[in-house]
Design brief:
single chain, alpha/beta, 4-stranded parallel β-sheet
Length: 218
């Protein structure tokens, strides 16, 4: 299906809360799919600054407000020994919504009913041993199974729950690793891995990828 057909279908199903924009951001993979070590997964491209993103996470877009967020994502990857050339960056929901995700309950419905199956098909180009880095708690809420959809960030970040989330405990059938961007409103500290609070967690993610590398899994 073309982007235009996808957007039309979404509007037919979910109404005007889907933005009628046919240019959807492309996946970003500058290092080539053969060199991918992880899938870097976002929620959707909705934002208050632009509806003309050429690539997910506002890559290749000269927009100062979005560049700051993009740099944060890059810093997250660097903290675990990766960079953009090591990942395949994509959103779970590829379309724009009229209201940003944090205030929008329809997002979960669209993700579950429409986009998860399409994402699974898209990621089939990669070996199932390639893990997925989750950039938001909301992603796990729709992807997790067997209770993992209810596990909070703190449980992972404070090592109460081990990583990775097993492949058989989520809908993507791949190991998942929380790498959240942002701040829990109930906490005074963000989940950015630059915070010393999360040094132990950061090191555990680095060890995970080091082990993958030693095993020859990209």
């Amino acid at each position: 299906m073309t982007n235009k057909e996808i957007v039309k279908e979404l509007i037919d199903i979910y109404g005007e809360r889907i933005l009628d924009i046919n240019i959807l951001p492309k996946a970003f993979c500058p290092g080539g799919v053969e060199n991918v070590k992880a899938i870097y997964l976002g929620c959707d491209p909705s934002n208050i600054y632009s509806t003309e993103l050429p690539y997910v996470f506002a890559h290749n877009l000269d927009q100062p407000n979005l560049m700051e967020l993009l740099n944060t994502h890059y810093d997250q990857l660097e903290r675990i020994g990766l960079n953009w050339e090591d990942v395949y960056a994509q959103n779970l929901c590829r379309n724009y919504f009229r209201i940003e995700i944090s205030r929008f309950r329809l997002w979960k419905k669209v993700a579950n009913e429409y986009w998860i199956d399409k994402l699974i098909e898209e990621l089939s180009q990669f070996d199932l041993k390639i893990p997925v880095l989750l950039t938001a708690q909301r992603l796990l809420e729709v992807l997790g199974t067997d209770g993992y959809d209810r596990i909070l960030a703190n449980d992972f970040y404070k090592s109460k729950k081990p990583i990775p989330i097993p492949a058989d405990k989520n809908k993507l059938n791949r190991e998942l690793i929380p790498l959240y961007v942002g701040k829990n409103p109930n906490l005074e500290i963000s989940y950015y891995l630059k915070n010393d609070e999360w040094m132990r967690y950061r090191n555990s993610v680095k060890r995970y990828f080091k082990k993958k590398n030693e095993m020859g899994i990209n």
